[in-house]
Structure formats: C-alpha cells, structure tokens
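User: Here's a protein and a ligand (calcium ion). What would the complex look like?
Assistant: Let me lay out the input and then the predicted complex.
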Amino acid sequence: MKKYALVLAAGKGTRMKTDIPKVAFPILRKPMIEYIVENIEKSVVDDIYLVLGYKREVVEDILKNRAKYVYQEEQLGTGHAAMQASAVLEKLDGNTFIMPGDVPLIWYKSINRMFTLHEESNNDLTVVTAHYDDPEGYGRIIRNEHGMIERIIEERDATDEQKEIKEVNTGIYIVNNKKFFSLLKKLGNKNAKGEYYITDMVELMNKKYKVGSYLIKNNSIAMGVNDLYGISKAEKYLREYINKEHMINGVSMINPETITIGHNVIIEPGVTINPNTTITGKTYIRTGAIIGPNTEVHNSQIFENVVIKHSLIYDSIVREETTVGPFAHLRDHADIGSHNRIGNFVEVKKSSTGHDTKASHLAYIGDATIGSGVNFGCGSITVNYDGINKHPTIIGDNVFIGCNTNMVAPLKIGNNVFIAAGSTVTKDIPENGFAIARSRQVTKEDYSKYLIKPKEKKTE
Ligand code: UD1
Ligand code: CA
C-alpha cells in the first residue's frame, strides 16, 4: 500500500504574534516546517502534500519541490484544511499520515512505527495520543468503558471534568484514504469556534470503520508550538538532544546549556566548544578545533586545529591551524588560509588569504585577494568603497604592510613589497618595491613651549 503524508500548514499562527507564518518560524535558525519535511522524507512515506494558505509563497520558497501543495484560501479549521486535499487523496489507494505543521520535533522512526501499528491492526483511522502532566491547550481523548477511543473534545468545548483528562490528541493521525476522505465531506462545524475540526472525524469514523490509537512514549516528539514560548521550549529540547549526540560522539562541550548547535551542523570528534557559542546552518567543524567562548559560526567550514575566540564567522572558511579573535568578524565568503592569525577587531569580508598571513589587530580587509606570508600592520585597511562602487585589492606574497596604511582600491601590490607605516597608497606597487606615501615630518626644536602651558610646581 502506498504511503502519503499530509501536513496542515495553512494557519497564520495568531498566537505567535509575528508576521511570519508559524510553520516558517525558525528554530535554531531553521524553519520549523523543514524539520517536519526532513523527517517525513526519511520515513516510509512516498509522497508529501502540504496544505498552505497564509503567506503560502514563504513556505513554498523554503521547500520548493520537496512537497506537493494544495491551498486553503480561508482558514476554517483543521478539518477544512484536510478537505482541501480530499479531491486528490480520495483517489489514491493507500494510507495517509496527517499531522499539523506546528509539531517540529516529529521523528521519522516514530512515523514508521505508527504506520506499522496502523497496518498490523487493520485500522481505518489511527489517532496518535500522548499522556501529558499539563495537557492545557490540547484536545482530550475520550474513551468508552472498553477503553476504545470514542471521540476527541477540544479544550474550549470541554467540561471541567473532561479537562482533567491527561491523555491528549497530538493532532497526528494515519487514515485509510478512500474511507477517511470520502467521509470528511460530512464533517460539520457546530462547536465553540464555528470551525471544521478534524478531531470530529473520530466520532464519524467510529460509526462505520475501525478506529484505533497509538500512544507516543517520548512526549517532546509530539509537542505542538503555538506561541513564542513554545518555540523556546522546542529549541530547548532540540538543543539538549543535539548536544548530547555530539558529546557522545567525542565533542567536548564546556557548559553545554549555553551552547546551541543547529540541526545540520557536522562536528568531528576531538573538537572543543566553549560556553556561549552558537553554531548553525550548513557548518562543518574538523577535529582539533576549539570554538568559543562567545562565538557565532553560521554556514561555515572550520578546518583542523583552528582556534576561534569571541568572534563572528558567517558564510566563510577558516583553514587549518589558524587562530581567529578575540573579537574578529569574518563574513560574506571570507576564505582564510592555513596558519593565519586574524586577531583583535579585524573584519574580513569577501576576501581570501594564503598561508601564514597575519592581521593581528584593528584591520579591515574587504574585496581583497591576499597572498601568503603577508603582515597587515595594526590599523591597516583596504579602502574598497568609493561611495558608489566596491573595488578589489590584490596583494602578493611576503608583503609587509606598515601600521595604519590605507590601500585605496582598485589596487595591485606585488610580491615582497614593503609599505611604510601611515601610508595612503593610491597607485599599484610592483614586485620588490618599497612605498612610502605620507608627508615628511617637520621638527622644530625648542618650540613646544608655545604650545604647552608649563605645569605649576606644587609646593609642599
Ligand atoms: C489541534 C487539535 C488538537 C490537538 C492539537 C495538537 C483540532 C481541532 N485540534 O489544535 O486536538 O491537541 O492540534 O497540537 O484539530 N491549520 C490549517 N488550516 C486551518 C486551521 C489550522 O492548515 O484552517 C493548521 C495550522 O497551520 C497548524 C495545524 O493546522 O499547523 C494545527 O492548527 P492549530 O490551530 O494550531 O490547532 P490546535 O489549536 O493546536
Ligand atoms: Ca497547534
């Protein structure tokens, strides 16, 4: 039997109080819906359908052709959302895994287990439930005297007695396509909110078909995110889970509660991560690297034995044995060679360096191609912007750049060049050249008395 998935993701997420559609809201810098689709892709499911509505283009832009889309123009409830896919799914022989788009911690192995139970029990509808100590906000499971699932009651429609029930509806179901989607047309909207609740399908299905349930053991997997507090809770679960995996794999973490590692980050064993460090996006960190404290790394590659302290690294590469920081900023495809030193208050943007190059203090390197063995003196900068356009700087090997040098781009500096401190270089310097570009010093002897008031001597 073919297996489908239907993710209900058309809602705005009003309780989030943000403009981004809830399912696109990031958790550890990655949209919630991506976690869900990634896990469905890893599971036994063959085809994924998504119901979109509010700002659908934002979600489509994230997922592109990883799913098929159906639209719910007006958000009239979870049952109404599922109806939008009826026309398609009713015709497809098989079972469909239905879930809300705001349950980001779903795990592919659980999806597989749900399918196994559904098929082995010959269910036409399997409701996935969980036991929560604090069930507030979730629909409650009403069972009959034989323990069979009878119906689901939404919290706002529940009596005080029903609210005491700790078994909740996770919003996840597996259904037999033909039976479920043909009956879905009969769903009404007589409830506190006047919405079409998918949960009312339990009663309808019970009349004709076999309804069963699957109790989820790991509660966080089915956790629904409804507001920004929920986002922080999901983030906490995910952080703990991810950090644990890395530590077991040989990554040392000092004070791991303060360390945040994104879902797709690869870290080799033998890496040390210090407190208050966030590593996200498509990042790869090789063995021997020491990252942090107080560091952010996003979409970057960090090679063997690199040391990064108190720094920001975005969309960049740092090659082996290089040290970065404290307080350095690499961004926009900076590619730092091996055995470099990028030190205090140095910013590197869209530039590359060879091996053994140093910019130890207070430098700006932008749109530059820099060779090996170059020494950037303190306060030296590439002047890459003329107010309208950005221009490139090319610097050869073994170049010594004196302190406080301005290199006004476009500019080419050959190998083995020496630039005197304080120069403003506006013309290319050929190989082996020495350049000095500043006014000569004038010294007037015995002249300071006109400028400095003599200090009065203090009498005792
Ligand atoms: C729903 C369930 C509740 C369950 C909980 C689990 C119903 C009526 N209630 O409540 O029993 O305990 O999930 O998390 O189903 N959506 C649409 N179109 C709509 C309305 C919603 O696509 O018209 C989507 C939303 O984008 C969201 C999902 O359905 O991703 C769930 O909607 P939400 O409003 O969060 O439902 P809950 O109130 O949490
Ligand atoms: Ca929800």
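Summary: The first strand starts at residue 3 and ends at 9.
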